[in-house]
Design brief:
Helix 6 packs antiparallel against helix 9. The chain starts with a helix and ends with a helix. It is mainly α and 189 residues long. The protein has one domain. The structure holds protoporphyrin IX containing FE. The site of protoporphyrin IX containing FE (HEM) has 20 residues, from helix 3, helix 5, helix 6 and helix 9.
Length: 189
Amino acid sequence: MERSLLIKEVIPFFLMFASLIGAAILTDFLLHQLQLIWLGRYLGIPGTLIIILSFLYSLRKRKIIQTGSPKKLLQFHESCAWLGSLLILVHGGIHFNAILPWLAIVAMLIDVISGLIGKYLLKRSQKQISSQKKKLMEQGMSNDEIEKAIFWDAITLDLMKQWRAVHFPLTFVFAVLSLIHIVSIFLFW
Ligand code: HEM
């Protein structure tokens, strides 16, 4: 009996996201301990630059640039997105004055989640479901029985596919909100 998608794929995915939030809380805590809270404000700049750098992969994927191995660039995209988000989270800290940059952070976090879903869950889950179907067919199960057996896995997979569809539009929302925040900061510097 195969372990369900939930245990095999969703939990490792959740741990990856939790590591980002955990690292942000830890970094913020250390900055407070070391009396370096001011540094957090400046982390917005490298955070933004690193996230911009991560878009090299998006340019490669859409063939706007031709050089670089797509696989390596994807890894680069993931690492930059993780590190950049970490710096931005620490930058936002626990200060609440303005709503707009916080909306940008919410968009960023949902974006990170949708990216992780694409990475961790979709491909492997699709493969797992089709190999599961094949196995059940070989065991002589009818189509109806197979549908029933994989019902919850198929629902989980459908939900994950929805998530992926939000990755690009959300990046756009995130970029616009961030840009408004950055422009207003520089106007009033
Ligand atoms: C060049 C990049 C950036 C610069 C120079 C910058 C600068 C700043 C500064 C100076 C503040 C303090 C404002 C205040 O205390 O009133 C601030 C706050 C903040 N920034 Fe940024 N930022 C940048 C990028 C970003 C990005 C990309 C995000 C989100 C995705 C972001 C989210 C926030 C949040 C949540 C706060 C706290 C707002 C609050 O106090 O309620 N920043 N930023």
